[in-house]
């Protein structure tokens, strides 16, 4: 017998072993890069998608690494992809989300915004698959959960370093990979506004930071409640007071309201004893926090004005000592009481719908808490002044609430014009001024779901909601089937926190938070014991290479696009740097910006920058080539970016430079429909109508003169009609940008009325905002016409007349010329 051919029954073939080694290496690459991203991304201003070139570089870097990760996922999929569970169906259907963004590009309001959003959605989907594959392994899931929580804790400590005045030290820790700041601190980690001093940490926006803190707070309390080892209890419980302090000093009223709602949603899925234990930990944490809240808050407010090392040390001492005390209490409770909680409530847990008992009771307790805080009970007086003032203003009759309601109504108006496939990524930023009820400034709709709806229409929105619903359903069903609380529950805590808070703010415009959401959604379906497919689907095992191959192609396409966009941004930055140099020639500037536009055609910021350079060169040299190149560039870019306000102004300028006033006038009047609350367009329309009317007057074309003059008066009438809309706004709501009669407009309309012989009306316009500052030439001319209109009515303003003549004696003749002029 040849024993050399007999293999041990537990041995594996060399091929399988090598495959296992390769896939294991890929697994660790995916996991390590994901963890690095979770630490890197927050310090890139949380990858805020601001739809301008200022925010591009970290975003394009993120897209590049996302493509590399997707490539790794594709290779890993060749070894591990199986289509034997409903989760596999979801992992395929998730690509319908970026597909809807691709479809929406055909009706996009902005090609630049929509293409960026398409690539972002592709990368979100990549992270969904990362969460899916990594969390299939129990160890991978555990490391990913800890990575998410630790990255969040780092953000919290970074914020507190800034709160306690250690701004330079905090920035010194991260500046080697964070974007450059104007000074040696992380810009706006602490912000002061009408509400007071607010902690924003890496987000530079307190409300979205508060959304993350909700997720971290509930997540930390949950992990403490299920911890079996004292070290785990210590690690997560030590963070509860820092998180609560940070949460409270964000002064985010919306987050204060949303926190109990998220807790209620989470509690509906947990067993009664887990709910009670978490409530107990939260109450203890709040009590310990309130002991030092006033002191820590006051210290932070003072340090925001002037650094004091003694105050800073006092703040740190109070925080750390109280956190140690809280951790000790939690370790004791978890060691001696948590098991008793579980035993005593085990019978209740078996009762149907028992998980609803405590949430219903919590609603009653919550209502009582609201009464204590908002009623005249004196409880508010226990809080620091800035927090007290913030909570006192929580009501539905305040500007932030009413204004959000306006955003939502305007978003529905936008959606009605693009109901099926939407207006593309960034639709709200591109189009909101066309649909707005009043002249507010907000490039974010402050509601993720409505912003999503206007971007991809009912088709894309329905697909997203169905996928989201399936993921939540499968996770919850699987959770109840397993009948135990595991660390994986963190994934739904984070997802629910972000989704619920994003109903009232633009949290998911921070790509970092979007990535967190999609990682968690992918992880939620990674370890399902439900939803197994029938055996009739086994034939797909022979075709399992198809899906990884498609992922491979998508990763390569995304990589090359992201690399090209990143190179374009580098060239644009080089052009900007050349402008700042005194030694640069025009070619030194145009060469890199031309390269940028080749790599990223029709980029509105790049095109606007180049057009400015060309027009400046034309002004200096009068070389028509510069002017013609600028006109061609503006027109080509506007075909893809028809709603870009800066390009519209540049096209108007090029028309007026060449005295094409009629075309400029038509363009302005057309754009008033797209920007109905932009008073500068009305002002330009009235001025051009007067210029065209004046040309007709000098040409003795009375009919055309009256046509243009009547247009100017009609435009002013539109302004008056729209100001009535502003007068009807609730008194608590701010109108936004100024809208109404401007001095330039008043001068033009006054001249029209004077020429037509309506001197009383002319007087009313011409006296608008005039003063005795005659070095201002427009003011000087306006006073001249005003005094002439008075003389035409046998009236005078002797004091103003004397001041004007004292400044310039020639004005006496100028006024007399006007008085005696015939038009």
TrEMBL record:
<feature type="transmembrane region" description="Helical">
    <location>
        <begin position="545"/>
        <end position="566"/>
    </location>
</feature>
<feature type="compositionally biased region" description="Basic residues">
    <location>
        <begin position="1"/>
        <end position="10"/>
    </location>
</feature>
<feature type="transmembrane region" description="Helical">
    <location>
        <begin position="86"/>
        <end position="106"/>
    </location>
</feature>
<keyword id="KW-0812">Transmembrane</keyword>
<feature type="transmembrane region" description="Helical">
    <location>
        <begin position="59"/>
        <end position="79"/>
    </location>
</feature>
<keyword id="KW-0472">Membrane</keyword>
<feature type="transmembrane region" description="Helical">
    <location>
        <begin position="254"/>
        <end position="270"/>
    </location>
</feature>
<feature type="transmembrane region" description="Helical">
    <location>
        <begin position="277"/>
        <end position="293"/>
    </location>
</feature>
<protein>
    <submittedName>
        <fullName>Polymerase</fullName>
    </submittedName>
</protein>
<feature type="transmembrane region" description="Helical">
    <location>
        <begin position="25"/>
        <end position="43"/>
    </location>
</feature>
<feature type="transmembrane region" description="Helical">
    <location>
        <begin position="449"/>
        <end position="476"/>
    </location>
</feature>
<feature type="region of interest" description="Disordered">
    <location>
        <begin position="1"/>
        <end position="20"/>
    </location>
</feature>
<feature type="transmembrane region" description="Helical">
    <location>
        <begin position="143"/>
        <end position="164"/>
    </location>
</feature>
<feature type="transmembrane region" description="Helical">
    <location>
        <begin position="230"/>
        <end position="248"/>
    </location>
</feature>
<dbReference type="InterPro" id="IPR007016">
    <property type="entry name" value="O-antigen_ligase-rel_domated"/>
</dbReference>
<dbReference type="GO" id="GO:0016020">
    <property type="term" value="C:membrane"/>
</dbReference>
<dbReference type="InterPro" id="IPR051533">
    <property type="entry name" value="WaaL-like"/>
</dbReference>
<feature type="transmembrane region" description="Helical">
    <location>
        <begin position="510"/>
        <end position="533"/>
    </location>
</feature>
<feature type="compositionally biased region" description="Polar residues">
    <location>
        <begin position="11"/>
        <end position="20"/>
    </location>
</feature>
<feature type="transmembrane region" description="Helical">
    <location>
        <begin position="202"/>
        <end position="223"/>
    </location>
</feature>
<feature type="transmembrane region" description="Helical">
    <location>
        <begin position="353"/>
        <end position="374"/>
    </location>
</feature>
<dbReference type="Pfam" id="PF04932">
    <property type="entry name" value="Wzy_C"/>
</dbReference>
<feature type="transmembrane region" description="Helical">
    <location>
        <begin position="112"/>
        <end position="134"/>
    </location>
</feature>
<feature type="transmembrane region" description="Helical">
    <location>
        <begin position="488"/>
        <end position="504"/>
    </location>
</feature>
<feature type="transmembrane region" description="Helical">
    <location>
        <begin position="313"/>
        <end position="333"/>
    </location>
</feature>
<keyword id="KW-1133">Transmembrane helix</keyword>
<feature type="domain" description="O-antigen ligase-related">
    <location>
        <begin position="315"/>
        <end position="465"/>
    </location>
</feature>
